[in-house]
Known about the structure:
By secondary structure, this protein is of the alpha/beta class. The protein has one domain (7-247): Alpha-Beta Barrel (TIM Barrel), CATH 3.20.20. The protein is built from ten helices and eight strands. The protein has helices spanning 18-31, 48-54, 79-84, 95-100, 105-118, 130-134, 138-160, 179-196, 214-221, 238-247, and strands at 7-11, 38-42, 60-62, 89-92, 121-126, 162-165, 206-209, 228-231. It has an eight-stranded parallel beta barrel with strand order 1-2-3-4-5-6-7-8, surrounded by six helices. Helix 9 (214-221) links the parallel strand 7 and strand 8 (228-231). Helix 7 (138-160) crosses helix 8 and helix 9 packs parallel to helix 10 (238-247). It binds phosphoenolpyruvate. Residues 11, 166, 171-172, 209-212, 230-234 line the site of phosphoenolpyruvate.
Amino acid sequence: MSERRALVAANWKMHGSRASNAAWLSEFIAARDGLTCEAVVCAPYVYLQQLRDQLTVGQVGAQDVAANTAGAFTGDVSAEMLRDCGCDWVIVGHSERRQWHHETDQIVALKAERALQAGLRPLVCVGETLQQREAGETMAVLSAQLAAILHRIGVEGLLRGGLAYEPVWAIGTGRTATAQQAQEVHAALRAQVQQGASGSANALRIVYGGSVKPANARELFAQPDIDGGLIGGASLVAGDFLAICAAASV
Ligand code: PEP
C-alpha cells in the first residue's frame, strides 16, 4: 500500500434482511472507530435507507445503477434517485452484472458517467475470465475494459471514484490471485491510466477483489499498487469485514 488512503468496500450482493443487517451494522459501528481505511458498504437497493440511517456520510454504496436518467425503464434505479436517498458510492461493471445482465464495456462506462453526473462515486470493476487468463489475454481484456471507461469519464472521473481489479476466476471461488499476480495487474492498470494523465494516476485507488479473506488481506494490501479491496463473501460476516478493514488500516 502507499500514501493513498486505503478503500475497503463490502459487496453484500443479494444477501441480507432488516434483522441480519441490523446485527451486522451494530457490530461494525461498535468497532469501526480504530479504522483508518475508508470503509463502504454496498447493499441491495431496498436496504440503502437502513444503511443511511446507521452509517456515516461516505459509507453507503449501491451495487448497480441505471444507464438511463429517467423514463419507462421498469425496475431500474437512477443515479439521481440513489443520490436523493443519500447513497455515496455505486459499484459499476461488476462481473456478475456483465455476465448475467449482458453489460458491455460501453454500458458500464455510461453507468459510471451517470453516477458522476449525479454526484455518486463510481467503483468501476474490470476483470478477466479464467479462459482469457489461460489464453494469455489478461492485459488485452483489462486494457479494453479500462479504455472504454477512460474514454467516457476520463482520468478525472475515475479519480472521483475508484477502480477495482476483480479476476472473474477468483470471485466467490475461494481461489485468490497471488499478491504478485494482483500487483502485476494493478501496476499495469495504473500505467495505462498514467498515459492519459501525467501524475494523476498516482492518486487513483485501485482495489483488489476476489476471495479476499482476513487470512490473505494483509499480504495483498502490502503490495505497492493495491489500495484496498472489494469484498464479497467475507463481507457478510461483520467480524471478517472488520478484520479485512484492519489489515488495510496499518
Ligand atoms: C465480489 O463479488 O466483488 C467479490 C470479490 O466476491 P468474493 O470476495 O466473494 O470473491
